[in-house]
Design a protein that fits this description.
Largest sheet: 8 strands, mixed
Strand content: 15-25%
Radius of gyration: 20 Å
CATH superfamily of the largest domain: Vaccinia Virus protein VP39
Number of helices: 11
Oligomer: single chain
CATH class of the largest domain: Alpha Beta
Low-confidence stretches: 1-8
Number of domains: 2
Shape: globular
Order of helices and strands: HHHEEHHEHEHEEEEHEHHEHEEE
Strand order of the largest sheet: 5-4-3-9-10-13-11-12
Structural class: alpha/beta
CATH topology of the largest domain: Rossmann fold
CATH architecture of the largest domain: 3-Layer(aba) Sandwich
Amino acid sequence: MRSIVKAAGVPVLMRPMRGPITWACQRGFLTPGVRNFLPWRWALEPFTIYGAGWRCRWFPTEFDSVGHRLFWSGLRLWEKETSPVILDHIRRSRCVIDIGANCGIYTVMGCTVNPAVRVVAVEPVPKVCAALARNVKQNGLDSRVTVLNVALGESNGVVSFCEADDSTMGSFAGDGEPGKLIQVNCRTLDSVVEELKIEPDFLKIDVEGFEHIVLSGAHQTLRTFRPRMVLEAWEAGSAAAVTRILSGHAYTFHNITDTGLEKRAEIVPVERSPNWLCIPAS
């Protein structure tokens, strides 16, 4: 018996401490380096995400790199500049569209911090969308979340989509990202809003450099409902197109940095701070 326990080592002895360890890591009492001495597969089992005065459950999968990072460091290190901005705006929203929802982290956290919000979570890759739907269901959010297994673009139809090996990097074009091409249904944001009869007041757009394609199919939504939004800017051409579209609808642009929001005249790629808050002029 002693040899079995010795062979199993730390995992057997520390197993009851898995919950307290992730709590301590997320709160900053243990550094993420503790993962070097503990089973990496701990992050593949359900765990609690701890926020400021709130908590929710997460149900990861083998390809869920976001969940792995959250298990070991929580919101202290993962998108630490951007997540407070997104959650603050979701708290003040009635209807959110999470575009590029991945496994649903902002959908689940948003519904946790705002018990009255309705979310439409959009994810085109089938296996990732299944993980999103699982997290929604396991958190009891089915009545408040509509999950759509589609891409959003400038027209309705079927498009080629790169199912990247890194599940956070899927996009319309592979752009050198390892993965395989699949065919997915594509909708315009305007058609989704009209079909669901919703009035979105906040958008989170994370589509790996194709934000301008999403916004090209959203002119009616931007004109009618004036949603605030957070989006990424990685490539100069896409950033310029986003600036052009949103300027036409009288939006202002704020780079989300580690020192706060910086107002800019246009959206440009900023390597250390790729996320932008865009607000309609009053």
